[in-house]
Design brief:
Strand order of the largest sheet: 1-2-9
Distance between the termini: 13 Å
Largest sheet: 3 strands, antiparallel
Radius of gyration: 14 Å
Length: 99
């Protein structure tokens, strides 16, 4: 897995752009977790996992998301898997475990 671009400051404000990181590199037979930091509690967050960072159907990536209410945010990968949840606080750990 590779993080592309920067987080979206639409909710947190320009001074607090969210960051995502991994506990360690994912490998078969191990478990790792994705951690989200610099986020206020109680706001929706979306983790998008995709196979392509260049196209999604007829669209060329990245796509600016202002038209869907997220100005300054970009879709940077094809949305093959999307995980949605409400943040728990400034350091939101354990988003997903990958065995």
């Amino acid at each position: 897995m590779t993080a592309l671009g920067t987080g979206c400051a639409a909710v947190a404000g320009p001074a607090e752009v969210p960051r995502i990181g991994m506990s360690h590199e994912a490998a078969l037979g191990t478990t790792c977790s994705l951690n989200l930091s610099r986020v206020p509690p109680g706001v929706p967050a979306v983790l998008v996992l995709g196979r392509s960072s260049t196209t999604w159907g007829p669209l060329t990536l990245p796509v600016e998301l202002g038209a869907v209410g997220a100005p300054g945010c970009f879709l940077r990968v094809s949305p093959d898997t999307c995980l949605v949840r409400t943040t728990r606080g400034v350091h939101d750990k354990g988003w997903i475990a990958k065995p």
